[in-house]
Design goal:
Length: 428
Amino acid sequence: MNPSHFSKPVWRLPDRSAFSDLPITGPERVDLAVVGGGFQGLSTAYAAALRGLSVRVMEARGLGEGASGLNGGQVIPGLKFDPERLLEIFGDRQGEVLIDFAAGAADTVFKLIDTEGLDVEHVRSGWIQAAHTDAAMAAITQRSRQWQVRGADAMLLNGAEIALLTGATGYLGGWLDRRAGTINPLAFVFGLARLATEAGAQIATGVGATGLRREGGEWRVETSAGHPVMARSVLVATNAYSDALVPGLARSLVPLHSFQIATAPLPPDLQETVLPHGQAVSDSRRILVYYRKSADGRLVLGGRGRMGEPRSEKDWQHLQVAMLRLFPQLEGVAIEHRWFGRVAMTTDHLPHLHEPEKGLVVAAGCQGRGIALMAALGPRLADYFESGDPSALPFPLSPIRTIPLHALRQIGVGAMVAWYRMLDSLEG
């Protein structure tokens, strides 16, 4: 692909010297080896180091070059399923634990930024889920009710209210969850890395895990640095970038590409009509679009893209069409950034926690809520690595279940995305 067709994310790159990159120069022995330096891996490394565990993090790329630095920066509490459905799936006891965990997930992010003084642009004005059909509005009404009775700072929006808050056209209403907000996700990755290294964790970037096996009661992690890391426990925090390191893991997930665009900074008159109060928005379409404003006043809009890597600017055209459908006033505003990243979908739309062998833990499948979910999961995982008590985990451990005919499923998802996009276009 010609690199001129896309650019780096719009997010301000923080000071790279904010954390210490410590290469692996010889064999090492630690309490916890973490494979993957995104939100999950760094949050767990930080929390584990605070608990006195020795920690080594291995990130095959540079910090923020995976999904954690390439996403839209929306910090959303909750899960895809509403509280009543979670109780049906998990039962009263486990369901309540999971609901409480998910409800407070966004708090973890904003509290960490504020109390630790992280250099992370953030706005906590809430998240709007917007309805474009009567059926979607009915579902959102139930969602708002279920969270409000549990004390969530949320409200239902009618057509006039959602038009006022978003400046967008075509919505019947929606709900506003004030627990949510937006951040610079790339800066948050570096902030977590700084906290982890200050707490005593060691991070090596450009170092991948190439092999994993039990040896003498410990885990031996072979690395691309040529030196092994011996660990009592291992966290594989690779999510959508998982490979064959853990048998079956990659084939238990469906990888998708999220494409994003960012406009030029909007002039003052458009700043007043496009998301004037700073909320983030996701809509109710089958192939949803999500959008927010950046710290420098750009509209940032994303959605699902082609299953393969982009080949030209045309692969982002559907996002520009969606932007002008929502905000006709942005006709003629330049698109200055285009980028994409990989995310992982699970077939049941729930995050999965696995421990295929004792001391080897995997968490995957964020379903669009990766920032809040993985930041909040880190301390729970650290508790588990320290104590070995499964009650420390908000999700039950489950076996890895590969998706039958995995390669064909990916082809089918691509066809489904195209079909759903056509149906969405027919609904206006």
